[in-house]
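Figure 3 (text version): structure tokens given as input.
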């Protein structure tokens, strides 16, 4: 029991601090408002590291993946399946949350202004900047990710010189992760203080919206885990594939629930794939990559966060916002979710891309912390179904090539 709780130790501490801060803001609003500078200092520290974190992490991971370019079709299949399996749950929960509004008419009153959050999105400015300096701003995270992906591909295709740059990026990434680890010691105090000041001017009814949002996410998770998994397994192996999946998915699912880590569950996932009779050559290539790339649970909670916060702020969830929500969700699953130790990167990505007030960050963190375990189960279980699909797409070709 204790070992299981240790896997959630940091999440429990952070969630407890946020709940305490929220209660303090409701009970002692004047005192809580004075705590805002403490939270602002913590967020500013994160903002100062966010640009090098994104650039270095994405470039180094993409550069390493291009070393596998000799695998050709199978690598393309892994990426394509991962993207599609992020889009489907993201769109599904957007539609579900739009039909059953988790905010239920409760409005979040904030002092900060909103940039572009309620209007038409400028996709040119969102995806690009007109000079290099623009990439160094947290307001252009999406453009930074796009350029980092392109740079990572170029590094991977540059032979010996590229390998030297990739090694340097790996070293820089290690240092940046250590900086993040140091900053995270202050997360409970910093975010707790910021959440206290946010809740100081709110109605107590706001706390109930979290329960509705989490309940909606768990409902979506149950539906996606049963119906979605069955459909994917059928695509990968027909009726027999569905049977083999449900006979062997429980062990990795339970392990993911206990560890809250896709990576820690990887050995169990590989063993389950072998029990399912999947081709070992394909599963041993696919699963380590899918752990970082295929994160449907991350895409789902990211989409719900955006719909939820738009509803709380009383903003119009237009067609433009729908499209950018799906894009952000896919990137969160495909790239951001694979950044080790990238604490709060997803929340910061949402806020900066959509021009939302910083005050909503603790609210997004609360949702993420509560739903982390369920998201991890989705990620892990669908690594198995993704491998089934990848085997069906590449099995015969890959076996003939191996012979």
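Below: residues designed for each position.
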């Amino acid at each position: 029991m204790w070992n299981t709780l240790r896997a959630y130790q940091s999440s429990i501490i952070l969630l407890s601090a946020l709940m305490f801060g929220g209660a303090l803001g409701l009970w002692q609003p004047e005192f809580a408002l004075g705590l805002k500078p403490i939270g602002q200092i913590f967020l500013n520290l994160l903002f100062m590291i966010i640009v090098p974190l994104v650039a270095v992490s994405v470039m180094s991971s993409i550069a390493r993946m291009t070393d596998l370019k000799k695998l050709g079709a199978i690598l393309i299949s892994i990426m394509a399946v991962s993207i599609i399996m992020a889009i489907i749950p993201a769109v599904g929960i957007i539609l579900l949350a739009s039909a059953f509004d988790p905010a239920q008419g409760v409005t979040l009153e904030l002092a900060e202004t909103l940039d572009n959050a309620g209007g038409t999105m400028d996709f040119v400015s969102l995806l690009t900047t007109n000079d290099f300096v623009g990439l160094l701003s947290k307001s252009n995270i999406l453009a930074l990710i796009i350029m980092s992906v392109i740079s990572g591909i170029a590094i991977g295709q540059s032979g010996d010189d590229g390998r030297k740059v990739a090694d340097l990026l790996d070293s820089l990434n290690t240092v940046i992760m250590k900086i993040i680890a140091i900053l995270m010691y202050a997360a409970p105090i910093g975010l707790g203080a910021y959440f206290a000041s946010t809740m100081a001017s709110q109605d107590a009814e706001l706390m109930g919206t979290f329960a509705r949002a989490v309940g909606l996410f768990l409902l979506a998770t149950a539906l996606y885990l049963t119906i979605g998994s069955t459909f994917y397994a059928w695509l990968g192996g027909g009726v027999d594939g569905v049977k083999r999946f449900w006979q062997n998915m429980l062990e990795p699912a339970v392990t993911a629930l206990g560890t809250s880590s896709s990576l820690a569950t990887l050995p169990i996932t590989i063993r389950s794939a072998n029990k399912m009779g999947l081709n070992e050559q394909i599963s041993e290539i696919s699963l380590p990559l899918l752990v970082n790339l295929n994160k449907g649970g991350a895409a789902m909670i990211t989409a719900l966060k955006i719909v939820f916060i738009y509803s709380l702020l009383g903003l119009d969830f237009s067609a433009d916002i729908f499209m950018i929500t799906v894009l952000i969700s896919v990137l969160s699953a495909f790239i951001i979710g694979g950044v080790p130790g990238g604490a709060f990167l997803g929340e910061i990505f949402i806020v900066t891309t959509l021009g939302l007030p910083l005050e909503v960050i603790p609210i997004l963190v609360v949702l993420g912390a509560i739903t982390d375990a369920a998201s991890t189960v989705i990620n892990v279980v669908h690594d198995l179904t993704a491998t089934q699909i990848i085997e069906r797409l590449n099995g015969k070709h890959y076996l003939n090539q191996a012979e």
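Residues 338-343, 399-403 have pLDDT under 50 and may be disordered.
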